[in-house]
Amino acid sequence: MAPSDGIGEAFANELCSRGFNVILHGRNPKKLSTVQSKLTAAFPKAEIRTFVADAAASSTTNSAAIQDLVDSIKDLKLTVLINNVGGAGNLKAAFTTFADHTTKEIDDMISINMLFTLHLTQALLPLMIKQDSALIMNTGSSSYIGLPYITVYSPTKAYLNAWGNALYTELQAEGITNVEVLTVVSGNTQTGQDTRPANFLRPTAKAYVKGALAKVGCGRTIVVGYFSHALQSAVTELLPRWAQRKVLGMALKPYKGKNLDE
């Protein structure tokens, strides 16, 4: 998981509270160390490890880091993988027109939101298959429907939905029934990136995580993790496509050139 702040840290806290040992992933060693110290203080019996890798780095660079991770945990009982890494990378503004993106920005967002998750999961899957039961949970986004001004980030979340479903279907076809793959679609959540106050439509990261984990074992591969997010998705899906485009364009255009917390 990527626990430097927000949803990732909330997942780490919740899993530790349930008796799990955790491995924290992030690109910033200082932030990882801070979270590790907080978790160790709160859960002294839990073993907390860290794994440093920049999801936006090249596949070659991350391949070596991922292999080092696999080598260091191959004797452990790996039962849960939370694929929570994601985001807009180092954009000057999270909401930007497609024409204004640089090639590097596009490549970085695809690496962060797609490639790193695939490479990490592929490397860890053999360890998970060996367990009596295991869970791969992907943190998705309601932006998968295709949103303006996040025209690179948004489709990567649609890919994540399709990939999670495809992976689970393939595992079942191969007779591997002990690994659950669940993509949990999230809406607006109060995180380190969005510091506005939580409310009914924007739950805290802790509330979202509890809702997401409650969906484990539901028998589906794609679910909406929190009630208010499900309500918003249902309302959006009731609209005809032309109306969706109109409403979403009007709603998001004011954010053009801004970040999540502006």
Summarize the topology.
Blueprint: H1 7-17, E1 22-26, H2 29-42, E2 48-52, H3 59-73, E3 80-83, H4 103-129, E4 134-139, H5 153-173, E5 179-185, H6 205-213, E6 222-224, H7 227-238, H8 241-252
Parallel strand pairs: 1-2, 3-4, 4-5, 5-6
Explain the overall architecture.
One of its GO terms (cellular component) is endoplasmic reticulum. It comes from Mollisia scopiformis. Pfam families: adh_short (PF00106). 46% of the residues lie in helices and 11% in strands. It has 262 residues and is α/β, with parallel strands linked by helices. It has a single domain (7-255), classed as NAD(P)-binding Rossmann-like Domain (Rossmann fold), CATH 3.40.50.720. Strands 3-4-5-6 form a 4-stranded parallel β-sheet. A two-stranded parallel ribbon has the order 1-2. α1 crosses α6, α3 (59-73) packs parallel to α4 and α4 packs parallel to α5 (153-173). The longest helix has 27 residues, at 103-129. The mean pLDDT is 90.
